[in-house]
């Protein structure tokens, strides 16, 4: 993928559906390009200002969530509270408060990819001490009830996949990843974060079936299988270099949000100085990334004002913007 | 023990977390812990009926009743042995286990690895979590433990060969820091870090074997025993160290509270092993 030039890339992906996807719509049905609103907010740290910032973000996006079941899906990876490896608990708590303020019934769920003891990891990451009654709000998606979801026109080799029922049953799944580089797919953001709704109890730790079926293709398949989503990306302190586990902290000072995960991820890539056209899962998910990016209406801080160059492993130098 | 008994579901199975759906893995671990202590209690009979009803025609077990594939959980169930499961059910489970290998060691992949000059560790077929995927440390260790028990009744060449290859898989995947990661010891030219859970279960599976890797792994496990961040990690490390007679004399009481049924059962199993009764190895 990094070796592909823009012309080759565009030639290979000119037939896909547009990027703009409605909150409750069928993600893969061809339709006229729709505007995708993406907000970029400056957030220098994990202080109290985040609580007000997230309320403003939700107001900007005019989500109709009163009385709806909202599942916040952070990224929990490792027992390392001092590393920028997990979504920061203050951001998740701010999201809990913001969605509640708009009348939603909020829960939190995550199914980590390679560590099994999710609650212990959440404790180590500071979730218990930051979010009141965390254990009552939380579902370990790896051991939740499962449903077998048939994949229509999958990009991967999978015909179906077992997903956590809590993620399927909610009215809005809010992907809350950490902004990180990723040694297999270039960047891990709100779409890759959907791996956490795949059942570890069925597939194991790691969910190796996703690797065998093709990681970028599975990301695209999950994006289409879970259409009622929203993204809030923790780009306050992200990770650069050998992410998503062994990288180093990178302060970017932003929170990026939007209804369309692909639009949000493409915007995050630009902030990270990564060319979204060279991210394979974006191409698979939306087809013509270049064309689709024209449909993004960005509010808040302009990308060029918050851009910061995330270090890339040498083998990923080809995705540099 | 009370916590375990009160978290059993009405259908006879156990959930990972109280109130959740029944899953095969916590049910098998709960049974393993209970059978050693109260073999006649009614919950055991109900759980065994639940397990027996969910065995698939191919001999394996699905992780949850609604799943249509047999997976690694078959190894955990097989640890219950033929007396609990029934001779035919146990034999079929072992036959299913013997058919499983990591997809990364099939002929095509090995030829590719040879041509690419990849690590020879892929020569040894371990066991995958889910059929059709790569072998990993945990399912390999659990399958070894199940086959060790089966070999006490049927020490066939096929079982012996898989046991030897499984042990070789584990030894070839030891990390440079001493223990085991979930899979490869290196990824993208970076050393992988060892985890307590995987190191403990790998050491347990290597009980009775001797090598420099095992000595090093015991040292790593001893250094991490009192710094575990989960009850499961601590239980596996205790079980692993006990299997090699290396559990420190300073055997402090655990400060970690088990948060899942499986972890409660593992803590009971580790305690039983420390008292000389190890259901994984008997």
Write the layout of secondary structure elements.
The complex is a heterodimer of chains A (321) and B (282).
Chain A: H1 6-12, E1 36-42, H2 49-61, E2 69-74, H3 89-101, E3 105-110, H4 118-124, H5 127-130, H6 134-137, E4 138-140, E5 146-150, E6 160-164, H7 165-169, E7 172-176, E8 178-182, E9 186-188, H8 200-203, H9 208-212, H10 215-225, E10 229-240, E11 248-258, H11 261-271, H12 280-286, H13 289-293, E12 296-300, H14 303-306
Parallel strand pairs in A: 1-12, 2-3, 2-7, 3-4, 7-10, 8-10
Antiparallel strand pairs in A: 1-11, 5-6, 8-9, 10-11
Helix pairs in contact in A: 2-3, 10-12
Chain B: H1 2-6, H2 24-35, H3 42-54, H4 73-78, H5 81-85, H6 87-99, H7 107-116, H8 137-151, H9 157-172, E1 186-187, E2 190-191, H10 196-205, H11 212-224, H12 231-243, H13 261-274
Antiparallel strand pairs in B: 1-2
Helix pairs in contact in B: 2-3, 2-13, 8-9, 8-10, 10-11, 10-12, 12-13
Tag the structure with descriptive keywords.
heterodimer, A: 321 residues, alpha/beta, 10-stranded mixed sheet, two-stranded antiparallel sheet, disordered N terminus, B: 282 residues, mainly alpha, two-stranded antiparallel ribbon
Can I get a quick summary?
The complex is a heterodimer of chains A (321) and B (282). Chain A is of the alpha/beta class.
Q: What does it look like?
A:
The complex is a heterodimer of chains A (321) and B (282). Chain A has 321 residues and is of the alpha/beta class. Chain A has helices at residues 6-12, 49-61, 89-101, 118-124, 127-130, 134-137, 165-169, 200-203, 208-212, 215-225, 261-271, 280-286, 289-293, 303-306; strands spanning 36-42, 69-74, 105-110, 138-140, 146-150, 160-164, 172-176, 178-182, 186-188, 229-240, 248-258, 296-300. Chain A has 14 helices and twelve strands. In chain A, the strands form two sheets. In chain A, strands 1, 2, 3, 4, 7, 8, 9, 10, 11 and 12 form a ten-stranded mixed β-sheet that branches. In chain A, strands 5-6 form a two-stranded antiparallel sheet. Residues 1-31 of chain A have low confidence and may be disordered. Chain B has 282 residues and is an all-alpha fold. Helix content of chain B is 51%, strand content 1%. The longest helix of chain B is centred in the middle third of the chain and has 16 residues, at 157-172. Chain B starts with a helix and ends in an 8-residue tail after the last helix. Chain A binds chain B through residues 79, 114-117, 119-121, 124, 140, 143-148, 162, 183, 201-206, 208-209, 211-212, 242, 246, 313, and chain B through 15-17, 20-21, 23, 25, 63-64, 66-69, 71-72, 103, 128-130, 132-134, 136, 138-139, 182-183, 187-188, 190, 195, 197, 229-233, 256, 259-260, 263.
């Amino acid at each position: 993928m990094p070796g592909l030039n823009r012309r080759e890339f565009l030639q290979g992906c000119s037939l896909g559906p547009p990027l703009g996807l409605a909150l409750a719509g069928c993600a893969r049905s061809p339709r006229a390009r729709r505007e995708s609103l993406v907000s970029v907010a400056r957030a220098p740290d994990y202080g109290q200002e985040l609580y007000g910032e997230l309320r403003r973000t939700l107001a900007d996006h005019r989500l109709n969530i009163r009385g709806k079941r909202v599942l916040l899906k952070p990224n929990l990876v490792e027992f390392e509270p001092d590393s920028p490896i997990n979504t920061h608990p203050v951001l998740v708590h701010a999201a809990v408060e913001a969605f509640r303020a708009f009348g939603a019934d909020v829960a939190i769920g995550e199914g980590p990819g390679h560590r099994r003891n999710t609650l212990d990891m959440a404790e180590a990451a500071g979730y218990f001490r930051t979010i009141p009654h965390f254990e009552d709000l939380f579902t370990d998606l790896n051991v939740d009830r499962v449903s077998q979801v048939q994949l229509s026109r999958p990009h991967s080799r999978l015909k179906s996949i077992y997903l956590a029922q809590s993620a399927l049953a909610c009215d809005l799944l809010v992907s809350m990843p950490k902004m990180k580089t990723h040694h297999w797919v270039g960047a891990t953001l709100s779409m890759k974060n959907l791996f956490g709704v795949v059942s570890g109890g069925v597939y194991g730790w790691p969910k190796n079936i996703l690797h065998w079926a093709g990681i970028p293709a599975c990301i695209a398949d999950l994006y289409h299988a879970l259409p009622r989503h929203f993204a809030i990306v923790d780009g306050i302190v992200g990770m650069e270099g050998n992410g998503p586990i062994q990288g180093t902290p990178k302060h970017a000072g932003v929170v990026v949000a939007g209804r369309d995960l692909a639009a949000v991820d493409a915007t995050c890539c630009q902030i990270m100085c990564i060319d979204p056209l060279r991210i394979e899962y974006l191409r698979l998910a939306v087809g013509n990334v270049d064309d689709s990016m024209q449909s993004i209406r960005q509010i808040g801080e302009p990308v060029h004002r918050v851009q910061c160059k995330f270090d890339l492993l040498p083998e990923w130098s080809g995705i540099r913007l | 023990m009370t916590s375990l008994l009160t978290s059993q579901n009405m259908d006879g199975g156990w959930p990972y977390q109280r109130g959740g759906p029944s899953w095969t893995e916590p049910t098998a671990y709960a049974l393993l812990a209970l059978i050693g202590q109260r073999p006649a209690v009614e919950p055991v009979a109900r759980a065994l009926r639940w397990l027996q009803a969910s065995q698939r025609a191919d001999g394996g077990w699905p992780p949850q009743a609604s799943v249509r594939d047999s997976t690694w959980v078959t190894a955990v169930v097989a640890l219950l042995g033929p007396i609990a499961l029934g001779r035919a059910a146990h034999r079929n489970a072992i036959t299913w286990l013997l058919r499983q290998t990591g997809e990364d060691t099939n002929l095509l992949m090995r030829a590719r690895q040879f041509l690419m000059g990849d690590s020879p560790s892929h020569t040894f077929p371990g066991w995958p979590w889910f059929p059709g995927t790569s072998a990993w440390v945990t399912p390999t260790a659990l399958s070894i433990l199940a086959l060790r028990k089966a070999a006490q009744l049927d020490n066939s060449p096929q079982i012996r060969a898989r046991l030897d290859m499984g042990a070789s898989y584990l030894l070839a995947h030891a990390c440079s820091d001493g223990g085991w990661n979930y899979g490869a010891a290196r990824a993208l030219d970076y050393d992988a870090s060892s985890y307590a859970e995987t190191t403990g279960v790998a050491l347990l599976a290597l009980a009775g074997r001797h090598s420099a890797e095992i000595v090093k792994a015991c040292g790593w496990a001893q250094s991490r025993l009192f710094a575990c961040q989960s009850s499961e990690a601590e239980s596996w490390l205790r079980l692993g160290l006990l299997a090699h007679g290396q559990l420190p004399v300073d055997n402090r009481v655990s400060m970690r509270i088990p948060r899942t049924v499986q972890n409660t059962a593992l803590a009971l199993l580790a305690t039983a092993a420390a008292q000389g009764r190890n259901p994984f190895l008997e």
